[in-house]
Amino acid sequence: MESYDIIANQPVVIDNGSGVIKAGFAGDQIPKYCFPNYVGRPKHMRVMAGALEGDLFIGPKAEEHRGLLAIRYPMEHGVVRDWNDMERIWQYVYSKDQLQTFSEEHPVLLTEAPLNPSKNREKAAEVFFETFNVPALFISMQAVLSLYATGRTTGVVLDSGDGVTHAVPIYEGFAMPHSIMRVDIAGRDVSRYLRLLLRKEGADFHTSAEFEVVRTIKERACYLSINPQKDEALETEKVQYTLPDGSTLDVGPARFRAPELLFQPDLVGDESEGLHEISAPQERLYSTWIGGSILASLDTFKKMWVSKKEYEEDGARAIHRKTF
After folding, report:
1. Checking DSSP bridges between strand 155-160 and strand 165-171, what pairing results, if any?
2. In a domain, 168, yes or no
3. Number of domains the chain is built from
4. Are residues 21 and 107 both part of a single domain?
5. CB of 38 within 8 A of CB of 61?
6. pLDDT tens digit string along 175-201?
7. I want to staple 107 with a disulfide (CB 3.0 to 4.6 A). Which of 136, 140, 147, 256 is the partner?
């Protein structure tokens, strides 16, 4: 098959978030698969036949057996810290459990957070071109794709994910680098702060699997207070949360104190500025992926791909030349 014919194949879109990875094919309305962006390794020695087999678990299997596993996120604050684990997760995206396709047959649109280190982008390109042998690659800023999903090309995107919070002004599809505000305080930091607050209330959460329980408590029980000072003065109603082992936990003031971290990063000694006003449309969960799906399916986008031939000729410069 000619290289142009391969580039014309339906592109794969991977929204590579710090906490959740979303993958599917361009042109689809929502991603085909979403799963936590972590790997799990058994914490204990296997001593019985028929026990859970395998040394590394990804996706639904890692979620299902997380109590037996040491959970590790390869990305922290939008930056890949462990490339071996990240590569295994991308490999899983193409597997029979996910997209069921060969990486050599489809171009890839990969997302990244704004103001990410250029070395991070270069290493991602190296992995996709040299390990996965993709025919073409494009790396796009998440905020640009989120705006594109709303049908606009000009606006300001405020995006707070698991690893990074950023505000990005965009004009006619191009981000304004000099005006981007990025804060490395986001959902995972709120989870860590909630764990600290729950410990002060008498609950013990120590392991990586228990941290995932804290994250679920955050998602189901926490809320943003309109007036934190008033809520502090009042007797806050406690919410009863049922833990995986069947026991219950009463969650009190931590419900609104933990999310306050986004507005007061100094609560954990961070000197970043906080957020104060949020516009949150309902479709925001998949907006970055949807924007990538729309963009990669356009005929006019074909000239934006960095082909394997271009990468072999120009290396990392080819990636930086076509990234926005």
Report:
1. antiparallel
2. no
3. 2
4. yes
5. no
6. 888 888 888 889 999 999 999 999 998
7. 136
